[in-house]
Write a structure and sequence with these properties.
This protein is α+β, with helices and mostly antiparallel strands. It is built from 22 helices and 27 strands. It has a six-stranded mixed sheet, with helices on both faces. It has a six-stranded mixed sheet with strand order 12-11-10-8-13-14. A four-stranded antiparallel sheet has the order 22-27-26-25. Belongs to the peptidase M24B family. One of its GO terms (cellular component) is cytoplasm.
Length: 699
């Protein structure tokens, strides 16, 4: 370093120190429960406090075999494959902090500890975390680097496990910490694992890999490998390291139970033009898997099974042969490849590119499409059974959010070919329903009555497909505001389902169609309108994301499935949320530009709440769309409920899907829209439609 640079760095250090002294330390989420403990000499000792002290000790003595100790440590809630929901033995952040949610990152120094998470989990975290921990909102005003910069001296080291951090996020942290004159270093021996020791849960012994039969997958795994190799050759790559568990499950037509809510097997795969290597715990391999993957032969269409951890030595070996190897880049919900995988190979041979498997998987084949429709019929029947049973017992039993959650999950898991849940079931009542990101738990559980709205968001995994649905119910009588909010949200869902559009339309441009129905009341909902969904896979699947303001280069294709969601949230009062899964179909027509005209088709078949629908706020077209949707439910779900022999659920469903009049006589219309405050169609247009309807009848 030259003298000039040394002086310049010294001056910057002095300025930063002076600024740090003058600046107030960052302040996070207000934790009222912790206020009374401030200034007390003696703080309560808990199990999590002891673990925090043990981690700080590891930061000093066992953080790294090279260099001095680390003064800060960053711990994400993800696992080695960057999953948000992780197995019990990978719940490191939960073990250290007590926080049971997901999508969180912790930062620890010798004198402080903080957690960053999404706003929807803040209330849950406040109830679960000790007062040792500060809470900050992800994408808020205080970043991890800001917080560490205010608590760690200059030129000190901050450590993190590179196996748990996406490569691009690692590079971002590295830059931000460098701006604070801190250095991010790799700590390959996870510090939480060191203090967890013998208490860390073992890998369950009964997690045998299951074959996804061709009748559900619709395609042999060998054909998928050939297509992947073709795409790799097109990109000029010799091989690909596959780290995403959902991509591996799709590619090899296998499923497992290694992590919650997603039927995957914890493993790695390397695909080259000549070899297929499958890295997995050998105890999970059965004779059926050996036969399925053809492990007894030695050509390019046979899979060679190796131990899970052998991938690291193999990467170093084959990196001397490969000239270009593809590792996954981030794509919408997919976080890409971990820093450990990326940095295990020479940078000159690494090609960071969106995984071709994402696009192969997103476009479902005909068998997968039929399976998704069948799964949603089973799921619709489950919701009808659970809600009809609950309504029948509502006045004679006490109900809470957690009890309703149990009821919904019980009926769903009793369906044919049900393999589990696809997401954490959310049951939100009253003022909880007004929280867009509320997560129900034992900490936040409240009693449910007939005075307000009940939002239920849930989904299931079936051999045929994956479901994701939200509905809003009321057991009493709704207010005018509730009906207006619900009807506007419903109108947006109906509008999107009937859309026909050219194939070059971006998903983000579709978002306004749904939101426009709530925008007209000068309100909005914070979550994205939609995301892709897998076939007996992940409930959130790239590349589709329906969210305005997100500049995405991906387009809808025939065979894609995605969710359509809308909501309304009145703070401290009530909320409305509706979500369906839609299928993208080809209309058979072409746009003048040459692009195919595509359309959406409802796959979710769960009744809406008729007590919350104000028909005077719906146009005749919207009423027709609702009647058509209800008729489909009566036909498909009705047949399923009769097959199951559940006539109580059948009659409940029939009552919820009654036909509504699409046109009102003028006197009824004027009475319903007194004062013109709810006019959904101009009077002239209404008269024209009435006359048009009468004339054919007379002829």
């Amino acid at each position: 370093m030259t003298t000039a640079k040394w002086i310049w760095r010294l001056l910057l250090n002095i300025l930063l120190v002076l600024g740090a002294v003058a600046a107030e330390p960052p302040r996070g989420y207000h934790r009222e429960i912790c206020q009374y403990r401030k200034g007390k000499l003696i703080q309560p000792m808990s199990l999590y406090h002891s673990r925090l002290l043990a981690l700080r000790e590891q930061m000093q003595i066992r953080a790294s075999l090279q260099g001095p100790e680390i003064y800060g440590y960053i711990l994400p809630s993800t696992d080695e494959h960057l999953n948000q929901e992780v197995a019990a033995r990978d719940q490191r952040l939960c073990y250290l902090t007590g926080y049971t949610g997901v999508r969180a990152v912790a930062a620890i120094t010798h004198h402080g500890a903080a957690v960053w998470l999404e706003k929807r989990y803040a209330q849950q975290a406040d109830g679960e975390l000790d007062c040792d921990w500060e809470i900050y909102l992800a994408n808020g005003n205080v970043s991890i680097a800001d917080w560490l910069g205010s608590r760690v001296h200059l030129d000190k080291r901050v450590g993190a496990d590179p196996h748990l951090v996406p490569h691009q996020l690692w590079a971002e942290w590295e830059r931000e910490l460098e701006d604070k004159f801190l250095k991010l270093v790799k700590v390959n021996n996870n510090l939480v694992d060191l203090i967890w020791g013998a208490e860390r849960p073992e890998q369950p012994k009964n997690q045998v890999i299951q074959v996804q039969a061709r009748e559900f997958a619709g395609e042999n795994w060998q054909d998928k490998i050939r297509e992947l190799r073709r795409r790799l050759a097109h990109l000029g790559c010799d091989a690909m390291v596959v780290t995403s568990l959902t991509e591996i499950a799709y590619l090899l037509n296998i499923r497992g139970t290694d992590i919650p809510y997603t039927p995957v097997v914890k493993s790695y795969v390397i695909v080259s033009q000549d070899d297929i290597f499958f890295y997995v715990d050998h105890e999970k391999i059965s004779l059926g898997i050996d036969l399925h993957l053809r492990t007894d032969c030695f050509n390019e269409d046979c899979v060679k099974i190796k131990e899970y951890h052998q991938i690291w030595s193999d990467i170093r070996t084959y990196a001397q042969i490969w000239k270009r190897v593809l590792v996954s880049a981030p794509c919408v919900q997919d976080l890409g490849t971990s820093e450990a995988i990326y940095s295990s190979m020479p940078g000159k041979i690494v090609v960071e590119y969106i995984s071709p498997i994402i696009f192969m998987r997103a476009q479902k084949n005909s068998d997968e499409q039929a399976g998704m429709r069948k799964a949603h019929i089973r799921d619709g029947a489950a919701i009808c059974e659970s809600m009809s049973n609950m309504e029948a017992r509502f006045q004679t039993e006490q109900w809470t959010e957690e009890k309703i959650k149990y009821e919904v999950e019980l009926w769903r898991l009793s369906q044919k070919h049900a393999k589990g849940l696809s997401l954490r079931t959310v049951v939100a009542y009253g003022e909880h329903s007004a929280l867009p990101y509320y997560i129900s738990s034992n900490v936040t559980n409240i009693e449910v009555s007939d005075q307000s709205l009940l939002v239920i968001e849930s989904g299931g995994q079936y051999l045929e497909g994956t479901t994701d649905v939200s509905r809003t119910f009321i057991f009493g009588e709704p207010t005018h505001d509730m009906k207006k909010a619900y009807t506007n949200v419903l109108a947006g869902i109906l509008h999107l389902a009937q859309l026909k559009f050219p194939a070059d339309l971006k998903p983000s441009e579709v978002d306004a169609l749904v939101r426009s129905m709530v925008w007209k009341d000068m309100t909005d909902y914070p979550q994205a309108t939609g995301h892709g969904i897998g076939a007996y896979g992940s409930v959130e699947e790239p590349p589709i994301s329906v969210a305005y303001g997100k500049n995405s280069s991906f387009h809808f294709k025939q065979g894609y499935f995605f969710s359509s969601e809308s909501g309304y949230y009145k703070r401290d009062d009530f909320g409305v949320r509706l979500k369906n899964v839609l299928e993208v179909i080809d209309t058979g027509h072409r746009h003048p530009s040459g692009a195919h005209f595509l359309a959406f088709q409802d796959v979710t078949l769960v009744p809406y709440e008729p007590k919350l629908i104000d028909s005077t706020l719906l146009s005749a077209v919207e009423k027709r769309l609702l009647n058509e949707y209800n008729a489909k439910i009566r036909n498909d779900i009705g047949d399923e409920l009769k097959r199951l022999g559940n006539m109580r659920a059948f009659y409940w469903m029939m009552n919820k899907t009654r036909h509504i009049r699409e046109y009102l006589p003028e006197d009824e219309y004027r009475s319903a829209t007194a004062g013109g405050s709810h006019t959904s169609l101009p009077l002239v247009s209404l008269l024209v439609m009435i006359i048009a309807a009468i004339l054919p009848a007379r002829s």
